[in-house]
Amino acid sequence: MKLRDYVIRRLLLLIPVFLGVSLITFALTRAVGDPASIYISDKCNDQCAAAIREKYGFDQPVPVQYAKYMWGMRIEGDLGYSRIATRPVALAISEKFMATAELATATMILSVVVGIPLGVISATRRNKAIDHVTRVFALSGVSVPVFWLGLMLKITFYFGTIGLLGYSLLPVTGRYSTSPVVMYGPPLGGFPVEARTGFYTLDAILGGSLDGLLDALSHLILPTVTLTFVTMALITRMMRSSMLEVMGQEYIKTARSKGLSEKVVIDKHARRNALIPTTTVIGLSFGGLLGGAVLTEYVFDWPGLGQWTAAAVPGLDSAAIMGFTLLAAVVYVVANLVVDILYAFLDPRIRLGE
Asked: Does residue 354 form part of some domain?
């Protein structure tokens, strides 16, 4: 099967997944609250409330409401109105997704760049000092609660340095400086360049603004480090275990018996095959990050999907919950598709669709 046909088939499978997730989520949101409450203010009387329910179809049976919701989404891209974001859900997602995507991308790049070499080094130097240190580091990463780590970093870089320098070395909230008051370091004012891509670091580079780049990077560091510590630990552990399994295979022993150097054996034979199971962890982790790193975004007041959804759940903002859930389903399916394609690239013996 050609790669194109395989991708098309997998994308078509997204349709039943999308319908299933939407049906379950829609039923649950209708079971826990009144969807009309988003549109009804305190000043709205009974007659006004009835008119709103009639206008949006909330007075009709749930199956009819679901059909109207899916029809509106399919035809107009209408995902409803978010009370928490005070704007249409589709618009809120388009604004907040890029904030989460920038954080997730920075986290994954750092996690892969550091985690994979750490796993390789740990496996090739098994039971040596560096292996023990790496294992303790990885165990700490999967054990430490992410919200606790984020809070400790905030305390360290705010209260720990503000007494010495008069300001924090790194900002502890938001994506860029918005206030001229010296609260988190020398102020830079509002974000100084046009947001073309939604990635502030990239926009600053495209706009030729060094101040904007430094400002965006300084705000990105702490939440990225927080998420990277957890994600990198998973990648390191998986890479180490995969390398140990691969290095015990017969073809590795054969490569060594042929006189190949240890570097060639590791780089050309062991590491590439060990990357196959590790790729699954990377793909699923990236999908989870894109779905919204709820606790980290909440701790650092990062204006992304995670923070928005965390506020939508207790606020019974059913439209926001529906929109986020559907987006998360799409992200995970696409992430799995990319992982499957990478399998074929890493191991030519794998034939997609067979």
From this structure: no
Q: Is residue 319 part of a domain?
A: yes
pLDDT at 190 over 90: no
24, 55, 89 - which closes a domain? 89
- Domain assignment present for 351: no
Question: Tens digits of per-residue pLDDT, 77-125?
Answer: 667 777 777 778 888 888 888 888 889 999 999 999 999 999 988 888 8
> Are 101 and 176 in a shared domain?
yes
pLDDT, position 23 = 81
- How far is Cα 201 from Cα 217, in angstroms, rounded to an integer? 6
For residue 305, give the CATH number of its domain: 1.10.3720.10
Provide the percentage of residues in the chain whose pLDDT is more than 90: 6
User: 280 and 235 in one domain?
Assistant: yes
Q: How far is CA 154 from CA 49, 103, 131, 158, 179, in A?
A: 44, 17, 30, 6, 19
Residue 29 Cα distances to 22, 24, 315, angstroms: 10, 9, 12
Q: Flag the least confident range among 178-187, 255-264, 330-339.
A: 178-187
Q: Which candidate, 285, 267, 192, 276, places its Cα nearest to that of 239?
A: 276
- Give the list of residues 6+ apart from residue 177 with CB closer than 8 angstroms, or none: 171, 184, 185, 187, 188, 189, 190, 191, 215, 219
Beta bridge partners of 82: 87
Task: Tell me which of 90 and 221 has the higher pLDDT.
Answer: 221
Residue 37 lies in domain: 3-89
Which residues, in sequence order, are bridge partners of residue 88? 81
What is the per-residue DSSP string for 59-128? TS-HHHHHHHHHHHHHHH----EETTTTEEHHHHHHHHHHHHHHHHHHHHHHHHHHHHHHHHHHHHTTTS
Mean pLDDT score, 45-74: 73
Report residue 161 as tokens: 């340095």
What is the pLDDT at residue 76? 57
